[in-house]
Amino acid sequence: MIALRTATIDDLDAIMALETASFGLTAWARETMAAEMTSEWGRYVVAVDDAGAVVGYVGLRAVGVEGDIQTIAVAEAARGAGLGRRLLAEAQQDARARGVQELFLEVREDNPTARALYASEGFVEIGVRPGYYQPEGVDAIAMRKELA
Fold it and tell me: For 144-147, which contacts have Cβ atoms below 8 Å and span 24 or more sequence positions?
């Protein structure tokens, strides 16, 4: 059984291991992740398995009526079971509770699985950010969802 809980700074090592495994050269820097996790505008949620291992996470930044899914990742061994959708749903619920009316995210152009997940959750493509993911130079697809 996978449980979701609010991340603490004690989860930083596990989140960074998953961030690096998931995103390689485009992974966030440890200092950036720590700053986001402890920001007054953010909330990070981790998915934890029965053994206590972090197998996924999602980060939300909400300022006023706008929110941003900062990052989301699921361990390779835990993919395909709906965990990414659960994490995304948790972030959307938190965003609504915080008064967010528009939720944004960026997704790699070359990640059709994530793009399909976001589209199935009501996110629509609103633009392209050329070369956004560095150093690889992969385009980002900007997406937006209106929250009720």
Answer: 144/102, 144/103, 144/104, 145/92, 145/102, 145/103, 145/104, 145/121, 146/101, 146/102, 146/103, 147/67, 147/92, 147/95, 147/96, 147/100, 147/101, 147/102, 147/103
